[in-house]
Design goal:
Helices cover about 65% and strands about 0% of the residues. It has about 220 residues and is mainly α. Strands 1-2 form a two-stranded antiparallel ribbon. A hairpin with a 5-residue loop joins strand 1 and strand 2 (about 155). Helix 7 runs parallel beside helix 10 (about 185-210).
Length: about 220
């Protein structure tokens, strides 16, 4: 891929940039992580990987407007059309499209090719660590979700039994499970470091909240 092609794809990606949690900085972090992972692998189609990394979240804007839209499937269709319209081969456009279609954590269509697995892993790594925690809270705020929820008695729900969305719920049902879903050796190595940071934040948040809500027992003695 030459510089002109790279810049053309970046320009299209910027037109479809969505929210702060999936912004241009996220896109480039995923690209850089994908390249780092690819350096530990053999026979990676770097052109496919670079294009897919840059375009993997172009369907996010549509999903934000309509929650019934799957951003991965939408983005895959958009990317394929864009590439074909710009004279890329059908085979290349299909490979990039498939990478995008299969990058979602909640997808029932898991990655198969090496490029698909690398993009999946790179995107998931950006959910872990200090960056991942910050991004998750940003997205929860944007979608009007709570940091945490309480049960009917006013007790903190740690996430496992939470029926409503919250950061704690997202942590238990996504962030905590990310590392075990990864495919490549390099991604697993990076995840092991980042997961320690994520776990520390979750544990610290729980500890602080539990300490704070002891006050509900004290106030009963006052009023």
């Amino acid at each position: 891929m030459n510089e002109k092609e790279f810049n053309r794809i970046v320009k299209y990606m910027r037109k479809h940039n969505s929210d702060q949690a999936h912004d241009i900085d996220h896109i480039f972090r995923v690209l850089y992580l994908a390249i780092e992972i690819a350096n530990d692998e053999e026979n990676v189609d770097m052109d496919v990987l670079i294009a897919a990394s840059l375009l993997h979240d172009i369907g996010r804007k549509a999903q934000l407007k309509n929650k019934n839209i799957d951003h991965a499937k939408k983005g895959a269709r958009m990317a394929k059309k864009f590439l074909l319209d710009n004279d890329y081969s059908e085979e290349f456009a299909k490979k990039v499209s498939n990478c995008i279609k299969k990058h979602s954590f909640r997808s029932d269509n898991p990655p198969i090719t090496l490029e698909e697995k690398i993009l999946f892993d790179a995107d998931k790594l950006d959910v872990l660590g200090a960056i991942g925690i910050a991004r998750t809270i940003m997205y929860q705020t944007q979608t009007h979700s709570n940091l945490y929820n309480l049960d009917e008695e006013g007790n903190l729900i740690h996430g496992e039994d939470d029926k409503n969305n919250s950061f704690l719920h997202e942590y238990k049902y996504k962030i905590e499970k990310v590392a075990e879903k990864l495919y490549t050796k390099k991604a697993k190595e990076i995840a092991s470091k980042r997961m320690k940071i994520a776990q520390l934040y979750y544990d610290s948040l729980i500890e602080e909240l539990e300490e704070t809500y002891k006050g509900k027992m004290l106030i009963k003695k006052i009023i």
